[in-house]
């Protein structure tokens, strides 16, 4: 087993010496060095035909016989590279009556090599099982040209022609007399013929081109295939032995796939002549989900505000857990097999990752940091609740070298968050709060804003200046649940602007410092002042000209009617009524 065919030839009276110039030149052209005329002939035939060949000094073969067998455990052999190797049963060897003389399909033995004193040569051409050669070569850590060829499949009928070719060349370049032969030893396990059926109609349907039957016969016979008629428009095709290793078998009986035979014909017709067509793919259109559209709107708006999107891992270090955010109750979900201790818990806030990215940019001289990320948070008991959030971290100053640089602050970020909510058809309001990792007096929780006078629910986000050390400039962060944005109206109503001029004015109110702007703004909305189309915070002042514990808040108002131009007296009257309402509710006064 392992050698289904062994062919031997004997040449006597050989004169071993240098090879002729033509033989040395041929070998050097493929990177093979010249050794002597006999060995060079075997290497030449290997490169010429792809059939490995080996030459023995016949006088070194004990007992005048060759045996192909498995090596015995502990058996030793000195190979041509002068290395003594310990063999095992996984190695196939060529042996004489006494000992192993070569590694079958891999390398010859030093004791039987052809030298200048050799006069009689034994030529070995065999077909070895590729799997046996591969196992033996790898067990010994050897890779040679011969093993390379055998491992990938050699022509099972090639030894006959190769033996004749080597014998003739040795007689030509080294003299000597080729004895009658060859000596052939074949087992019952020799590979049989490979064949398959080729249908002309299916060939044309497969390739999409017309090929005349006579052209099919010409191409295949020119490639060495045998053809016999097998019904109308079909042939039984026999594969030449030198192509056996390229063919994939349908079954153990030696049948080949018809598509492989199609390829042989179409390759000669020209693949460039085969029409190309993509296979029809019927896949359901997933469409665009509401969640996807919302994420797209969020990303698009924040990018339009000048922020860059960051994408971080969904897990971070346990030391960062609870550092920021409002969803830190209980224990975080721990990663079963973390990459390192820096990634051992699932995140409950997006801000730690953004702070790390911001610090990376700051240390490299970035004058401003404007980052955002959309992603999942893992909150609740052991991270069992997953919620999607969006977070922003900004800081530094923006502007070009030829413009006045503007410092980014908490109000820039708050305006960005409120603008994002409005862009998605929702509204949020801030309520002052003390938060982890936030400078005291700058933090606030974010709540979904309902109709005027409605109670706000649980916090859906937060905002504030981060309490960080060793930063070149302050960083401000905000984090908001995406669900609150999804609850808004997807489309904003279109309002036709008035054709009449409006009236804009500023109004300054003095009130206790404890009164937040959000409360004041809600009261103005609830008042329902006629024709008031817009208002907002313009200035907030606390100083020497204001009593201790009080502030001056300047609010801008814009009035406009759809059907006429308002008079200043009408606007003043409405402002006076609004001021009286605020005074009764909060104790404010006109400054």
Jot down its keywords.
BirA Bifunctional Protein, domain 2, 14 helices, Phenylalanyl-tRNA Synthetase, Chain B, domain 3, 591 residues, eight-stranded mixed sheet, five-stranded antiparallel sheet, alpha+beta, Phenylalanyl-tRNA Synthetase, Chain B, domain 1, 28 strands, 4 domains
Protein architecture, described:
- The protein has 591 residues and is of the alpha+beta class.
- The protein folds into four domains: 5-186, Phenylalanyl-trna Synthetase, Chain B, domain 3 (Phenylalanyl-tRNA Synthetase, Chain B, domain 3, 3-Layer(bba) Sandwich), CATH 3.50.40.10; 194-273, Phenylalanyl-tRNA Synthetase, Chain B, domain 1, CATH 3.30.56.10; 290-486, BirA Bifunctional Protein, domain 2 (2-Layer Sandwich), CATH 3.30.930; 503-590, Alpha-Beta Plaits.
- The protein is 28% helix and 25% strand.
- Strands 15, 18, 19, 20, 21, 22, 23 and 24 form an eight-stranded mixed sheet that branches.
- Helix 1 packs across helix 2 and helix 2 (37-49) runs antiparallel to helix 5.
Spell out the blueprint of helices and strands:
Layout: E1 5-12, H1 21-29, H2 37-49, E2 53-57, E3 67-70, E4 76-78, E5 84-86, E6 92-95, E7 100-103, E8 107-108, E9 121-127, H3 130-140, H4 145-152, H5 158-174, E10 177-178, E11 183-186, E12 194-199, H6 200-207, H7 213-222, E13 226-229, E14 234-239, H8 258-269, H9 290-304, E15 308-309, E16 315-316, E17 345-346, H10 351-362, E18 368-379, E19 385-398, E20 406-407, H11 410-423, E21 428-432, E22 444-448, E23 461-465, E24 475-481, H12 482-486, E25 503-512, H13 517-527, E26 532-541, E27 550-559, H14 568-586, E28 589-590
Parallel strand pairs: 15-18
Antiparallel strand pairs: 1-9, 1-10, 1-11, 2-9, 3-6, 4-5, 6-7, 7-8, 12-14, 13-14, 16-17, 18-19, 19-20, 19-24, 21-22, 22-23, 23-24, 25-27, 25-28, 26-27
